[in-house]
Specification:
The chain has 14 helices and four strands. A four-stranded parallel sheet has the order 3-2-1-4. Helix 4 packs across helix 7, helix 10 packs antiparallel against helix 13 and helix 11 crosses helix 12. Bound molecules: tryptophanyl-5'AMP.
Length: about 325
């Protein structure tokens, strides 16, 4: 049976460069390299998106989200499947069944849940249950590889644990995704991707950051994005070194430079290590980002909505077929059928 590579990004707001470099671009590169031997599932977790307020036009965000992959160079063929989560109802039912496999304790330990709930008087149940629906998305399609940023590794580990626990009780029904180390090797990144906030590089770049200078959005004017890189926080060490702990700002720039240009991180590090002029590195990265955004935004504008809608039509028929078959096996295991 053909293996599956699967990913999705939420569409509740405009994605950042972090989302792009952590999930979209790695998926495009994997898809273009492997779509003859693997199924490539790119889906819109629209149900995950409503855990918080949706900014902008939801339907417009959904169409744009698929266009990001195409604008970044995704080659479409019959092994590439594009679908919306809520159009494949088996995901929600699988989530319920997995709720009966997962424990409150393990969900309560999820960092994302703790972060999102921090300081809030009331947290919706969707935020708590989020990783179980994510596990359903992955396990119904028997995905082996899931290109996501480092912040999602804990959810991947949970997915593996749920699948292992399920199989232990009911037999080998679910495909256990590869562990994160194997995933990283497959992606060729060597390490988990966590693009940092440009002003506070000790934090990850996030959609929800208030400061505009902290994040680059895919819709930012190229010159504006270049300025944000030029004003990024660095450090007072005075020598370029890849050291995320002591020099997170500089290390972030090196990582962005490597990912945007598809150059191994080690090569970028060798080029810049020991240099003392931070400004030169900033100029180079600013140029890389603005050049990338210019052509990316041009590509985006040329993709018609109809193209995405057609992909949904075939992708959703495929996804429903695969998901329903797997769900039936799971229902039978629970004697629901
Ligand atoms: P979302 O929308 O929160 O994030 C989308 C992807 O962007 C990555 N990401 C980053 N990567 C690097 N640096 C950053 N600063 C950064 N910020 C975000 C995230 O790791 C993620 O890969 N739960 C998923 C959506 C989802 C999903 C799935 C993914 C639902 N079901 C099944 C894969 C498989 C999420 O985090 O979306």
């Amino acid at each position: 049976m053909k293996k599956t590579i699967l990913t999705g990004i939420r569409v509740n707001s405009e994605p950042t460069l972090g989302n792009f470099l952590g999930a979209i671009l790695p998926m495009v590169r994997l898809a273009n390299a492997h779509s003859l031997e693997y199924n490539i599932n790119i889906f819109i977790p629209d149900l995950h998106s409503i855990i918080s307020e949706v900014e902008g036009d939801f339907q417009e965000n959904i169409l744009r989200s698929i266009k990001y992959y195409i604008a970044a160079g995704l080659k479409i063929n019959e092994n590439v499947h594009v679908y919306r989560q809520s159009y494949v109802p088996a995901h929600s039912e699988m989530c319920w069944i997995l709720n009966c496999v997962a424990s409150m304790g393990e969900l309560g330990r999820m960092t994302q849940y703790k972060d999102k709930g921090q300081g809030k008087e009331s947290v919706n149940v969707g935020i708590f249950d989020y990783p179980v629906l994510m596990a359903a998305d992955i396990l119904l399609h028997s995905a082996s590889y899931i290109p996501v940023g480092e912040d999602q590794f804990q959810h991947l580990e949970l997915t593996r644990n749920l699948a292992i626990r399920f199989n232990h009780k009911y037999g080998e029904i679910l495909t256990v995704p590869e562990n994160t180390e194997t995933q990283m090797k497959f992606m060729g990144t060597g390490e988990g991707i966590r693009i940092r906030d440009l002003v506070h590089p000790e934090k990850k770049m996030s959609k929800s950051t208030d400061s505009d200078n902290s994040k680059i959005l895919l819709s930012d004017a190229p010159e504006r994005a270049a300025k944000k890189i030029m004003s990024a926080t660095t450090d007072s060490v005075g020598k370029i070194k890849y050291d995320m702990f002591n020099q997170p700002g500089i290390s972030n720039l090196l990582q962005i430079e490597a990912l945007v240009n598809n150059i191994p991180l080690q090569d970028v590090i060798s080029t810049w290590q020991g240099e003392t002029h931070y400004g030169d590195l900033k100029k180079k990265v600013a140029h890389s980002i603005s050049t990338f955004l210019e052509s990316f935004q041009e590509n985006m504008a040329a993709i018609p909505d109809e193209m995405v809608l057609e992909l949904f039509e075939t992708g959703e028929a495929y996804a429903n077929d695969v998901a329903d078959k797997k769900l039936l096996e799971v229902q039978k295991a629970f004697k629901l059928r």
